[in-house]
Automatic annotation (TrEMBL):
Annotated Poly-beta-hydroxybutyrate polymerase N-terminal domain residues: 39-95
Domain of life assignment: Bacteria
Pfam families: PhaC_N
Name under which the protein is recorded: Poly-beta-hydroxybutyrate polymerase N-terminal domain-containing protein
InterPro entries linked to this entry: PHA/PHB_synthase, PhaC_N
Amino acid sequence: MTAPAGDASLEARVRMEIERAIQRSIKGLEYISTGDPAVGLTPKDVIHSRGTLKLYHYRPQADEVYRVPVMLVMSLVSKPYIPDLAPGQSLVEFLVKRGFDVYMIDWGCRGRRMRGCGSKTTCSTSSRTVWSGCSRTRASARFRSSATAWAGSFRRCTPRSIPTGR
């Protein structure tokens, strides 16, 4: 007795699906067994820290650096490595290689001590951090004027001007 042609093709498809499932399982196990990828590898210096908050300055990687800096302010819930994921997939790396002077505020992990901190505390902390960064680095006059405008915008923050969702 010979199997009809339809049964042979069904058997071949089942074998192919089983083989694909095995290959997926192997790849999944390989993925799980590897460690976490290295993120946030662009060279940087901590120029100011206070509690969990840190102000990073990324080292320039171009011959000429623009005089007006870029300030990245992470949200309170985002990890600081999001704009600096991996070499070749990093916004920060892209900016510093093209001559931008990049700074970033990282809020750190907000614990129980920070539970009562609202938007007003966050805004005033941001402006103080920028000012500390200006005074501790040899920031250019352009950076100081940019930081003045940036910190001034945070000083104008009040609980009334920021929606709280209450």
